[in-house]
Amino acid sequence: MPDALICDPSDIFDSAAFDAVLSRAHKMSQTDARTAIVTHLKAAQKTGRVQIADGFRATPFQSRPTTRAYTYLTDCLVNAALRTAQELMFQNPNPTTGERLAVMAVGGYGRGEMAPFSDVDLLFLTPHKITPWAESVIEATLYILWDLKLKVGHSSRTVRDCLRLGAEDFTIRTAMLEHRFLFGDAALAAKLDTRLRADLFKGTEQDFIEAKLAERDARHERQGQRYVVEPNVKEGKGGLRDLQSLFWIGKYIHKVQDAADLVPLGLFTAEEFTDFVAAEDFLWATRCHLHLLTNRPTEQLTFDMQAAVAEAMGYEDKAGRRGVELFMQAYFLHATQVGDLTRIFLTKLESVHLKAEPLLERLFKRKPRVKAGYAVIHNRLAVKDEAGFLSDKLNLLRIFEEALRTGMLIHPDAMRLIKSNLDLIDDDLRTTPEARRIFLDLLLKHGNPERALRRMNELGVLSAFIPEFEPIVAMMQFNMYHAYTVDEHTIQCIAQLAMIEKGELVEDLPVASNILKRGVNRRVLYVALLLHDIGKGRAEDHSILGAQMVRKIAPRLGLKQEDVETVEWLVRYHLLMSDMAQKRDIADPRTVRDFAKAVQTVKRLELLCVLTVCDIRGVGPNTWNNWKAVLIRALYRQTKRALEDGMEALNRDNRGVEAKKALRAELIDWPRKDIQVETARHYDPYWQGLHVTAHVVFARMLRDIGENEIVMDLHPDEDRDATRACFVMPDHPGIFARLTGALALVGANVVDARSYTTTDGFITDAFWIQDADGNPYDAARLPRLRKMIERTLAGEVVTREAIKDRDKVKKREKAFRVPTHITFDNDGSDIYTIIEVDTRDRPGLLHDLTRTLAASNVYIANAVIATYGEQVVDTFYVKDMFGLKYYSEAKQRTLEKRLRAAIAEGVERAEI
Fold first, then answer.
1. Are 127 and 97 in contact (CB under 8 A)?
2. Are 218 and 315 found together in one domain?
3. Which of the four pLDDT bands, split at 50, 70 and 90, describes residue 160?
4. What is the CATH number of the domain that holds 279?
5. How many CA atoms lie within 13 A of 491 on its CB side?
6. pLDDT per position as a tens digit, 604-622
7. What is the maximum alpha-carbon separation in the chain?
8. Which residue in 142, 292, 431, 647 is deepest, having the highest Cβ count within 10 Å?
9. The domain containing residue 502 runs over which residues?
10. How far is CA 600 from its chain centroid?
């Protein structure tokens, strides 16, 4: 009877009941007997699976008893199918020596670890070429298992076949490494085990290690790093396959049968083995819950499944964080542990089984010189004398400095030494001037600070030296915007800053590159980036809390009071420039004026600009684009001009004069009278809100427009990674909403919009749109885009009806919660009331909002759209029908109520 199952073995499979059915079956026809047995086994399988699942749900972290229970149930079903084939369908009371058969479990099934829907991998072993009897038994057994809907992987081989195929294919070799005898001829199974050890495994340890390392690297390349937001529990970095690889290698080389056997061999310390077991238990529990919740062999933790698994495992919301975020933080912490164990384990094995370099290479290769106390072992930085190393606590930091200086990786034994002595990093060390110097030099001196920070973070040194950093280690932000955990995002930001400093991003980031080239306070900038998200994960605003934490941390790092205050300000307002650029109309002088007043000095502006660029680029590989670059650069340049030349440089009249002058220069071939008509027909906001290229397009569209004509111009705007869509038509109420509906219907995402009326009754609307992938529309797609927009504007398509089928939220995104916030701001613009709608993004949202505003007789001057994954902030610059701001609180409440109703109605449509 198997040990430690999640429930009683008799509840999983009643062997006596099956024996009775098999006994009765001998009295039936073969067809009826087979039907009776399969019917019984289906019911027994269903009962057993329910018992196991119920036991697991009651103790949701008990993965080992659960995986053993599924293995036990599978063993019983395979045994039942084999007995049926041998005893009922193809009896052979006097088999010849060639008619022996051994049934083996291989792969994960052989290891005895099965999730609810794991594959059943079987090896049917025969002594010689397969006989007709054995072929019939195998076929009958498989058909019964297939009737039970088991996903069976099978092979029929001799011992010689196994040796030959295993020599050719490491996947087959790995599967056979974990063979487990189930039923049949035990002597034949024992022969396979002996021959595998003697003729296949022995002497090929090095080849096996190299194959597993190459396989691991290829798998990680496919799956991405362990910090991807939707990790694969089985195949991803830090997942179960990485743990299994460690055991495979240990078993291949040392013949161990259990991971615990790796401890006496020195491949794991007792503490590391504890981490191994904890990670394995957690990952298997996660995988089992995934299978049960989806009722299929699901391995990827998609956003919707993250929330479902977190609930199944009992994680609850607390302290300003969702249960799913706490679950994913635990997941990433275990994945990090797996990464540490893998690195230490494989590097140690590599040092023993590494191929020697060719003699000539060893003779001429220059060995790096290391400082006293260190040694180079297999091109890794090692500690000569552990006791001597630990006698000076500063060495726990110095080793990272030496690793950066020499460019070497740290030896696994040194990593173990550091990790097991983190308690030496105490308050005394944290305030030692030399410790401060070493830490800041790691950031500022060697040119690749992210390498040191990542290794320090993985070994726990970063959290030990800055204890406030520990809560954000492996902290996941449950949204579609952030591609990394908070700690990894921080390191990515610092990596971006180092790349800019080294001149590697001059073409992509000319402004930030020039700022750094001219010179800034690097210490302030690096420390601000390191601490900018230190306050995340609490109920309070992380910018405010982070700034408060800076007051304690920055002096501890040795910063002067003036620098501390600057870092505190940068952390407090690290989102200000991004928000101003993406959520406000930077063509409005008031926006720039308010931002300039907040920043106060060019020095702060430059520091904030660089920090903002690094912060956005550190969110994910595809977050930064030309659109954001244009906005940040424009805000920086206008603000710098205002700070250097005075606020009058932002005067509306001055900007209008300059814009008209630029238009005349572009239309030099136009008659003077036509130019006068064009410059006189627009109000002031038009001249400050659009670039001269758009002014030229509108001038040409207006010049020849008919009385009731609709004129459209679609043109790629490469500088903004978008397609500019310009419309001119007679002005009438609701036209802006109709345009947003037309664009939503063709699947266009609006990233910016401007709407202006002329003195002679026309509307001039400019939209910047992207396709579903966030790219400008290809030229080949523009004719179809134009056709659909024309049909919609002509009334041939009713937008609200046509958009219903597209107004859906994807299943994997339904777990996200984005509360709706609606604010009214009468101070951010001299002319308009700014309505900011912060809510869940979905197709058709902008149309619903603009249609609601139009129905309330609200004039929309322009809309600014900022998208952050599943969250969107739609900002509208509006007036009432009399051209006035919305000062009345009653009117604001009415508008807010209508907007919320439109959002709620759309949510209902999206969830149908």
1. yes
2. yes
3. very high
4. 1.20.120.330
5. 24
6. 999 999 999 999 999 988 8
7. 112
8. 292
9. 466-650
10. 37
